[in-house]
């Protein structure tokens, strides 16, 4: 799909949006388990778009809901699939994902490091409980597209993930999607 086709798709599905964020490989160096591999890719290729999202935000409004659409492109850094940064909500707030296209996984982690992995595919809902970190991974060969809905005053904490990582990584091994321990995870 061309870039303008993505925008048209987002507008058709969620209507007008107030935020469009494009996340490129160069801003994800610390999030992938092999930063050196990211640097190598940046030298060899353009700064690829890993994912983008379109969002309708009601800034910090209690009892309102933000919602939007995320597109994660297919690709890998070494054996680790393209994925979102991932975050915890600052407040104790749940989130709903609804798969629209492609195939992927939602990696969820409690504050004590318990991990859950759930498939995200078309017409499937994934529920992210309050206080669980969440990261979405594209394990397929084309774009992973999904809707998200969460309370407007939830807030996003990216720092925990940047500093400690997730306890597990979703990688490709022998052509299969596998969940492995993250050797760099800090409790
Ligand atoms: O609120 C969510 O969980 C999603 O909308 C994500 O923000 C989106 O998929 C992008 O991921 P991240 O915020 O971790 O960069
Ligand atoms: Ni969230």
Task: Give the helix/strand layout.
Layout: H1 3-14, E1 19-24, H2 35-44, E2 49-56, E3 65-72, E4 76-77, E5 80-81, E6 88-89, E7 95-101, E8 104-109, E9 115-120, E10 125-128, E11 133-138, E12 144-151, E13 156-157, H3 159-164, E14 168-173, E15 176-181
Antiparallel strand pairs: 1-2, 2-3, 3-12, 4-5, 6-13, 7-10, 7-12, 8-9, 8-11, 14-15
The structure holds 5-phosphoarabinonic acid (PA5) and nickel (II) ion.
Nickel (II) ion binds next to loops.
Describe the structure.
This protein is mainly beta and 187 residues long. Helix content is 15%, strand content 42%. It has three helices and 15 strands. The strands form five sheets. It has a six-stranded antiparallel sheet with strand order 1-2-3-12-7-10, covered by helices on one side. Strand 2 and strand 3 (65-72) form a beta hairpin. The longest helix has 12 residues, at 3-14. The protein is globular, with a radius of gyration of 16 Å. The protein starts with a helix and ends in a 6-residue tail after the last strand. Nickel (II) ion binds next to loops. The site of 5-phosphoarabinonic acid has 12 residues, from strand 3, strand 11 and strand 12.
């Amino acid at each position: 799909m061309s870039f303008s086709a993505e925008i048209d798709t987002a507008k058709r599905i969620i209507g007008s949006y107030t935020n469009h964020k494009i996340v490129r490989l160069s801003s994800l160096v610390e999030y992938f388990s092999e930063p050196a591999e990211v640097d190598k890719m940046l030298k060899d290729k353009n700064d690829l778009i890993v994912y983008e999202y379109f969002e309708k935000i009601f800034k910090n409004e209690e009892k309102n809901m933000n919602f939007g659409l995320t597109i994660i492109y297919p690709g890998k850094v070494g054996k680790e699939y393209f994925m979102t940064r991932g975050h915890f909500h600052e407040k104790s707030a749940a989130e709903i994902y609804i798969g629209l296209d492609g195939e992927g996984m939602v990696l969820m982690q409690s504050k004590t490091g318990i991990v859950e992995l759930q498939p995200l595919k078309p017409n499937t809902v994934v529920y992210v409980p309050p206080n669980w970190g969440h990261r979405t991974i594209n394990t397929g060969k084309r774009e992973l597209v999904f809707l998200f809905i969460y309370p407007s005053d939830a807030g996003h904490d990216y720092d925990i993930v940047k500093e400690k990582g997730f306890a597990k990584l979703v990688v490709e091994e022998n052509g299969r999607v596998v969940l492995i321990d993250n050797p760099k995870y800090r409790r």
